[in-house]
């Protein structure tokens, strides 16, 4: 395999799909050596087969707002790869959604899900619908219209969607209601369900908790802990609040959160009361963070900026792809950052990753760090299949165990001869081997 040839061919076939090409490029660079050492992969054209999704469904979503105006959005579901289990991955509702973004996310999801050790393939879907400022009734009508198309290609053993940016418990509820109406079946067809109708304990906080458990392992490699560490976090969606809660519990101090309007710097650090306030703010369908500074006068709101200019020990980007670039990484390094754990999917640009690695700072990629969310989704599927519920302690212990095993896999495949743990290589190689070997076993399909 030659990485450049493959990327050039893909670029010609899919011009302009920059996020998708970026994600593929990163994985190919990591696996090039192992791929070329194992000719059975090349003989079965594993890479050519793995970089293209199995299929893509694109559809129109028409819905009516509270004033009676009709709106049209695009809906998608990308079935990326089901070599190791049913297609699995979230639904993103955000105005930036397009095919390139969903293909990058589906591709990443394939490796992430393989890392969890659970039997789940990779998928992603969503719409360019913007949930911000919409009423409850509008959200419901949109979700119902979306499911009127999606239901044909999903099922508990086929494809199990879940939440992602813009899709939380409320949206999963409306989607599930419509699926049930159409299919006349109560099954584990979606994850992130409500606790009293098939959901799993710990699922809402799983991505943030899992990310913190992973970062805890990164620190432990250096006999270090979260105690007394200053942590910068971006975003305040499904993920960031779980990070803030768990980091605080482990003795660290989260000093920033951010929204599209800017970031909050709270020198004293977030605590449970502040997190509750933010969750209320978010429940009102709002991802802006400036009101926090009015509520808690010790905090400062810095409009239009990202939190990477703040001095910290650990950076945990938790908002969206490419939110931390090379310049941001340089600022963090100059301010003495010791670890970078990417919680968002592909939150750091290739330039940022290069800066961290050049400086010898442990950097772990989203597909390893944020895998706790989909891992607990997998546990929700297990519970649904068995028709029983595990306790908080049981789910949390399993999540802990899964995050440790992902960290071990990164060490196994990513430790360089100079001792530096290249978590990017580790995660990509471990995920790739599992998926590629399953594809080999199953023949050319
Ligand atoms: N959207 C989440 C992710 O990026 C969760 C997916 C799931 O639970 O299926 O992994």
Describe the model.
The structure is a single chain. The protein is α/β, with parallel strands linked by helices. It folds into two domains: 3-185, Leucine Dehydrogenase, chain A, domain 1 (Rossmann fold, 3-Layer(aba) Sandwich); 206-361, Rossmann fold (3-Layer(aba) Sandwich), CATH 3.40.50. It has 17 helices and twelve strands. Strands 9-8-7-6-10-11-12 form a seven-stranded mixed beta sheet. It has a five-stranded mixed beta sheet with strand order 1-2-4-3-5. Strand 3, helix 5 and strand 4 form a beta-alpha-beta unit. Helix 1 (3-13) runs antiparallel to helix 2 (18-37), helix 5 crosses helix 17 and helix 8 packs across helix 9. The longest helix is centred in the C-terminal third of the chain and has 23 residues, at 392-414. The mean pLDDT is 96. Glutamic acid (GLU) binds at residues 88-90, 112, 162-164, 191, 345, 370, 373-374, 377.
């Amino acid at each position: 395999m030659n990485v450049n040839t493959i990327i050039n061919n893909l670029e010609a076939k899919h011009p302009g799909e920059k996020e998708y090409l970026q994600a593929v490029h990163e994985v190919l660079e990591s696996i090039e050596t192992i791929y070329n050492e194992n000719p059975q992969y090349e003989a079965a054209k594993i890479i050519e087969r793995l970089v293209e999704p199995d299929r893509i469904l694109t559809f129109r979503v028409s819905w009516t707002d509270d004033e009676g105006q009709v709106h049209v959005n695009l809906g998608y579901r990308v079935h990326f790869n089901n070599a190791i289990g049913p297609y699995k991955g979230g639904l993103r509702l955000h105005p930036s959604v397009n095919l390139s973004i969903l293909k990058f996310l589906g591709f990443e999801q394939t490796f992430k899900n393989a890392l969890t050790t659970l039997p789940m393939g990779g998928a992603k879907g969503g719409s360019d619908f913007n949930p911000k400022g919409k009423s409850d009734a509008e959200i419901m009508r949109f979700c119902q219209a979306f499911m009127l198309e999606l239901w044909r290609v999903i099922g508990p053993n086929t494809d199990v969607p879940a939440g992602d940016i813009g899709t939380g418990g409320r949206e999963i509820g409306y989607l599930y209601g419509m699926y049930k109406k159409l299919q006349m079946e109560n099954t584990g067809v979606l994850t992130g369900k409500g606790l009293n109708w098939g959901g799993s304990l710990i699922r809402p906080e799983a991505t943030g908790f899992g990310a913190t458990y992973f970062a805890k392992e990164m620190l432990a490699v250096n006999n270090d802990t979260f105690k007394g560490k200053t942590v910068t976090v971006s975003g305040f969606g499904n993920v960031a609040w779980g990070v803030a809660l768990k980091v605080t519990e482990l003795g660290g101090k989260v000093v920033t959160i951010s929204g599209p309007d800017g970031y909050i710097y709270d020198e004293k650090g977030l605590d449970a009361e502040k997190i509750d306030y933010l969750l209320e703010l978010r429940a009102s369908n709002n991802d802006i963070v400036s009101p926090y500074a009015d509520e808690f006068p010790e905090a400062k709101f810095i409009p239009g900026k990202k939190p990477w200019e703040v001095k910290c020990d650990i950076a945990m980007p938790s908002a969206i792809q490419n939110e931390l670039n090379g310049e941001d990484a340089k600022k963090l390094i100059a301010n003495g950052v010791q670890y970078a754990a990417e919680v968002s999917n592909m939150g750091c640009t290739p330039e940022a990753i290069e800066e961290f690695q050049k400086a010898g700072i442990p950097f772990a990629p989203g597909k390893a760090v944020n895998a706790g969310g989909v891992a607990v989704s997998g546990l929700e599927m297990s519970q649904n299949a068995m028709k029983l519920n595990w306790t908080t302690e049981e789910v949390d212990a399993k999540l802990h165990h899964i995050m440790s095993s992902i960290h071990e896999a990164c060490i196994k495949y990513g430790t360089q001869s100079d001792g530096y743990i290249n978590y990017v290589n580790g995660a990509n190689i471990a995920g790739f081997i599992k998926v590629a070997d399953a594809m080999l076993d199953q023949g050319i399909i």
